[in-house]
Structure formats: C-alpha cells, structure tokens
Design brief:
By secondary structure, chain A is of the alpha/beta class. Helix content of chain A is about 40%, strand content about 10%. In chain A, the strands form 4 sheets. A 4-stranded parallel sheet of chain A has the order 6-5-8-9, with helices on both faces. A 3-stranded parallel sheet of chain A has the order 7-11-10. The longest helix of chain A is centred in the C-terminal third of the chain and has 18 residues. In chain B, strands 1-2-3-5-4 form a 5-stranded antiparallel sheet, with helices on one face. Chain B is globular. The chains are: A alpha/beta, B alpha+beta. The interface between A and B is medium-sized, with 24 and 26 residues. The complex binds adenosine-5'-triphosphate, iron/sulfur cluster (SF4) and magnesium ion (MG).
Chain lengths: ~425, ~150
C-alpha cells in the first residue's frame, strides 16, 4: 500500500448500490461512481467522513484497529478522546467511563482532554507572538488541515503550528507511565479511543510522513456497548484511579471548546465541512483580517458528531455539558499543564505542504489547452448536474473526460443523442 | 495561438451575497492551471476589490477574464456614476461609502490602493455618469526588463 495515500475512509463494495448520493456531498469531489460502484479518488480524500454519514446503505466505512490489537502489547495505555464522555447520559460519569476502560483491559488511562489543556495553554502563548499570521486557524482537526493542503495553500501559514492533543497525550502518557511505574517504553502500546476517521489516517499516514506516537486507533462505536455493560455492573463510583483533566480539556470535544479557552481576541468556532469551506474562502480573500482565531472542525457539532461516534451529536452535546458542570470549576487547570512551559517542544518540526492535486498539467500551455477543452465539453452538456454519469457535476464529468478517466457517453443525455444518430442512420439504410 | 481561457461574469448591483463569487471562481481556475499560490492570491485580492467596488459604487457591472500562458487580464466595468477625482480616490483611506456600507466592514478606502499593490498593471478609465472600467493584469512570472 502506498503510505502517502492510506485512508481510513474506504468503500465496502458489496454494500454499495452505485446510487450517487455520496458524490455530491464530498467537499473535494473525490468520489465517482463507475460500473455502478463508488470509487474514492485517494489523492483527493481528506477523511472527513461526510460520505460515511450520508450513505443510505452504510457502504462507506472507516478502517480502525480492533480491540484485540491491545493484546499485542504488554502494557496498554488508553487515550480516550473527550467525545467519548458525550456518548453516555448523566448516570455514567466520566469517572465511571475511565474506570470501565481499565476494566476493559487497559492498564492506564491518559485523557486526551489533559493534553488539550496543554494545547490551550500553548495556544495562548502562541497567539501573543507578533510574527504569526492572523487569523490563526486551528490544526486540531486533521480533515481541515488536509482540506487546506488541497484547496487553500495560501492559508497553510495561518495554521496553528502546535501538535494535536492526541499526539501530545501519546507522548506524555508514555513518559508518565515510565516515570511512575518504570515500565520500559518498548512494552507500551498506546491506543487512541476515537470519534474520528481522519485521526486514524493521521496515525497511519501522518502529514509529511512524520511518525505518530499512537500505536493503534480504536473506534468509539466499537467499544460503546461493552463499556456500557461494564459500567452497568459496577456501582456508582465518584473517583477515578487516574488524574483527570479540568473542564477546559473536556470542552474540546464540542464546538467552541478550543476557541473559548483562548483568552484574547476575536475568535470564531466553525463546524461542518461546508461551513468550514465558506469561512476559509472568506479568509483567503482577506475578508477576515479582524478575526484572530478560527476553530474549524469538519464534523457537525465538532468531534461529538465524528463518524465513529454513536450518540446523536446534539444529545452528546447535552451529555458533555452536564459532565462539564460536574467538574469543579476552580480546578481550572489540572497538573498536566505544568508540563507545558516549553512551547518549542510541541511546535511542529516541519510544516505541511501544498498538495496541488487539482492541477490539470505541469505544463502551463497544456493545462490551458485542457481547460479550454473542459470549457468546450461543458458547453455541450446539459447543465443538469444530475449525477447519473457518476460525476458530481457536468463540469466534473468534463474534467474527467479530459483527464482521460471518463467518456462523453457516460452522460445519459449524450448517449441518447448518439443513439438517436445511430437509429437514424439505420433507418436510412433500410 | 488562441490558447486563451475566457470567462465572463455578471456583477449584480448591491447584492453582497454573490459579491466575490467571480474572483473566487477565478481563484479555482488559476489553481487548476497550476499558477503558484501567491500569484493566485494577488490576483484574487485585486479582482475581489474591483468586483466589490462595482457592487457598492458602480451599480453592478460585468467582469471579463482572459487567461494566457504568461498572464491574466481582468476587466471589471460598470455603468455607474464614475469617479470624479481618480487621483484622490486612489489615496489610501479616501472613501465615499455611506455609513450603511461601512457598518458591513467595507469603506475603509483601501480597495483601489490594494489593487494597485497587487496588480502588475492597472489602468482605470472613468467618466462621470458613464461608468468605470478597471483593467488589471497580473503576470505569472516576474517581468524582466521593460
Ligand atoms: N466603480 C466605481 N464607481 C464609482 N466610484 C468608485 C468606484 N470604485 C471606487 N470608487 C470611488 O473611489 C473611492 C475609493 O475606492 P476604494 O475601493 O479605494 O475604497 P472604498 O471602496 O470606499 O473602501 P474599501 O475598498 O476599503 O472597502 C470610493 O469610495 C468611491 O468613491
Ligand atoms: S471534527 Fe473531530 S471527529 Fe470530525 S474530522 Fe475533525 S477531528 Fe475528526
Ligand atoms: Mg473598495
């Protein structure tokens, strides 16, 4: 497998009916229907999971690791994303959830929320730097980062160049376990409990081929029921055997969590990939110069609406709110934040690069020629954007024809034209 | 040669919901053609400002875009009131935008000077009560000599 184009989001061909529902919703026009099956153009996919949500036949899935993979490691560390807490109602407190993870087979639980607090603190410092490009765009959502790499190269310099909470949690948990219990690093396996398909991709195929500190990614939906069963068996407990994050870290699961924790300036929180697309469009035109920080999350209601979650995101939001209210507000920062003095340690070592995959040709002359060809073919089509050809729009079909991956008669109206001509010719022969 | 890609757009008067659509569209085309991101950015900012001016000050108009291998030419024209004193209008901070427009975040008087900053060539033809035409050229490679 080409590591550069590993994707968590994949197609289950058996279940796909070739219905074209997905092609129109894909924000990067990465899906085509060919021979009555959907095909994902790998270079274009950003793993946002929109197609997983939209497919009526559940033919789009996210590849994740099974719970069994934890058996491959001697010492098992779970990194629950804060979105996990939103999956369960008020009777299941965060303490119960974390304890249940231990009973599920993990030796240690390090909340990603704790690392989110650190990122919050670092972001505050980062924002004070006079040299940074504003508006700063959060890099916490890998689908958004990849979207920017493909569609908005001018905004790459606006990205918050700080490691994600997941990566920081992975590194710190190893350190903590080693210091506390003297466990050798090679015995540890670190497992992210994920609401997110894009995070799977960033673990298996990180940007610019850096190495991830996470060993495997387990979907929330795959352990949702087991955890619930475990919790039901246990009496209510009020304290967890691990140190837990404050409200700030937990609030990152939803929308507005990250941005409200930054103390200064005008901050906006945008969620849902179409809304993100609109706001980035505005930013690139220079229309957001009065905004300091953009929190941009690909999923509706942020990670609470991630493709690997179970609960409806709006209910999850209420659950999370309840959880946050339980946390003593004066415990504003947990002790994990003390470790965050050294901002350099967590700043990106290299930046992400523009991936110009929408480019028609390396040679300008040829690219122009192709563009004219696309214009010409588009003019000959019917402006219906019906999707029956398997492309998301008439223009996308024209592009595919010029790129050599489709033909004009894939358009059923063009096919009809052609058949009519043949029928007339046959008629004349008679 | 005739290898030019041409686009035409209508710019509706006082409609902010579609204002900027033409320049956004041109940005996508240039990216597809492989023009470098910073030149795409300069072009789209210059075009956007001219487009918005036609919307706000010119009662709407038309955009013509011609893309060649080495440059993009943009012509934004309107049949609005024209600009009485072009030299004055070009100055940073000069604006006749009414309060209602300013409340929407426009009217800082920076548009024309921004166009001048980002375009390689700029020519403005304007006549009172006839209209204004803004001609913008951006070269894809730095120009040598001339
Ligand atoms: N197409 C036009 N028709 C008539 N008047 C114009 C036109 N374009 C610019 N002007 C005049 O020139 C002035 C300066 O234009 P400029 O674009 O620099 O600033 P602005 O549009 O007022 O504010 P900003 O562009 O910063 O939002 C305008 O206020 C207006 O009086
Ligand atoms: S919003 Fe959260 S769950 Fe959704 S793609 Fe982004 S990081 Fe993943
Ligand atoms: Mg202006």
């Amino acid at each position: 497998m080409n590591k550069d184009y590993f994707h968590s989001v994949t197609l289950n061909t058996n279940m796909c009916k070739g219905c074209t529902n997905c092609i129109k919703y894909c924000p990067t026009e990465a899906i085509r229907v060919r021979n009555r099956k959907a095909v994902i153009i790998k270079e274009r996919c950003i793993d946002c999971g929109v197609c997983i949500r939209i497919c009526p036949y559940h033919a789009k899935k996210a590849v994740t690791d099974s719970l069994d993979t934890i058996k491959n490691y001697k010492y098992k560390i779970a990194l629950p994303a804060p979105a996990l807490y939103g999956q369960y109602g008020p009777e299941f407190s965060r303490e119960r959830i974390v304890l249940a993870l231990k009973q599920l087979g993990f030796d240690y639980v390090f909340e990603v929320a704790r690392a989110a607090e650190i990122v919050t603190n670092l972001s505050d410092k980062y924002m004070k730097n006079k040299d940074i490009k504003k508006p700063v765009i959060s890099s916490a959502c890998p689908a958004v980062v990849r979207f920017i790499q493909i569609r908005f190269p001018n905004l790459i310099e606006n990205l918050l160049k700080i490691e994600s909470p997941m990566e920081i949690a992975a590194a710190l948990s190893r350190q903590e376990v080693h210091e506390k219990f003297g466990i050798p690093y090679e015995d540890m396996g670190v497992f992210f409990i994920s609401p997110c398909a894009a995070k799977v991709t960033s673990v298996k195929a990180p940007y610019e081929s850096q190495k991830s500190n996470v060993d495997a990614v387990i979907a929330i939906k795959d352990i949702y029921l087991i955890l619930r069963e475990i919790m039901k068996k246990e009496d209510k407990i009020t304290s967890a055997p691990f140190s837990l994050s404050s409200a700030i870290g937990v609030s990152w699961a939803g929308t507005g969590g990250e941005s409200s924790a930054i103390n200064e300036g005008r901050r906006i929180a945008v969620h849902g990939i179409d809304n993100v697309s609109d706001i980035l469009e505005q930013a690139v035109q220079g229309g957001l110069d009065d905004i300091d920080f953009i929190e941009a999350l690909a999923c509706p209601e942020g990670c609470l609406g991630g493709p690997l979650t179970v609960e409806n995101p709006f209910i999850a939001k209420e659950n999370l709110k309840n959880e946050i209210e339980q946390i003593a507000v004066n415990a504003a920062h947990s002790n994990s934040v003390d470790k965050a003095d050294n901002i350099d340690e967590y700043v990106w070592k290299s930046t992400v690069e523009y991936s110009p995959i929408l480019k028609l040709d390396d040679d300008m002359e040829k690219a122009l020629e192709k563009m004219r060809k696309i214009d010409e073919i588009t003019n000959g089509l019917y402006d219906l954007d019906c999707g029956a050809c398997g492309a998301p729009s008439c223009r996308a079909l024209a592009e595919d024809i010029v790129r050599g991956i489709a033909k004009e008669t894939d358009c059923i109206f063009k096919l009809k034209e052609r058949l009519n001509i043949i029928a007339n010719q046959l008629h004349q022969i008679e | 040669m005739g290898g030019v890609v041409v686009r035409q757009y209508d710019i509706p008067a006082n409609d902010f919901t579609v204002a900027g659509e033409a320049s956004s569209n041109v940005r996508k085309i240039l990216s597809q053609l492989g023009v470098s991101p910073d030149i795409v950015k300069r072009t789209s900012i210059a075009m956007y400002e001219a487009e918005i001016n036609a919307v706000i000050h010119g009662n709407g108009g038309q955009a013509l875009v011609e893309i060649d291998t080495d440059k993009i030419y943009i012509r934004i024209s309107d049949q609005g009131p024209g600009i009485a004193d072009l030299e004055l209008a070009m100055q940073e901070g000069y604006s006749t935008a009414p309060d209602s427009i300013r409340e929407m975040g426009f009217g800082a008087g920076m548009g024309l000077s921004n166009i001048k900053k980002h375009a390689d060539q700029l020519k403005i033809d304007t006549e009172i009560d006839k209209g204004t035409t803004v001609n913008i050229t951006v070269f894809f490679k730095p120009q040598t000599g001339v």
